[in-house]
Amino acid sequence: MAIWHGDIDLDAANQSMENSMPTYLGMKLTELGDDFIVGTMPVDERTRQPFGILHGGASVALAETLGSMAANMVVDTTKFYCVGQEINANHLRPVVDGEVTGKATAVHIGRTSQVWEIRIHDARGKLNCISRITMAVVPVPAR
């Protein structure tokens, strides 16, 4: 059974990220399972640090994007929205080129908070970063 609120359209979700950091860094949502979301990001001049490897901040940006998108897909966005409260990441191995793929899965979905784990792999399937994000579930202000 899917955890998502309503029918999720990946094309619409990707369009919602236009003109923001995910688009600038080349991120794309690529798959939506019953309880996970997957996205990719290139390892290129936009995402490398000066030593020629994937910047840890770019990995964290991918993790936060996947966790945030997933968290907001779980709630009724006419009543709630989700924002990041805390994120951590362990950078396990360098990536010099190609593309990385992140998969976000829910650890906890509560009434006022959510916790998501994001595992990021290189093109060979090697784990290069593991991250966890805590999201606050906030009521939409009354108008």
UniProtKB/TrEMBL annotation:
Keywords: Hydrolase. InterPro entries: HotDog_dom_sf, PAAI_dom, Thioestr_dom. One of its GO terms (molecular function) is 1,4-dihydroxy-2-naphthoyl-CoA thioesterase activity. The keyword Hydrolase applies. Residues 51-127 form the Thioesterase domain. It comes from the Bacteria. GO terms for cellular component: cytosol. Belongs to the thioesterase PaaI family. This is Esterase. It comes from Microbulbifer agarilyticus.
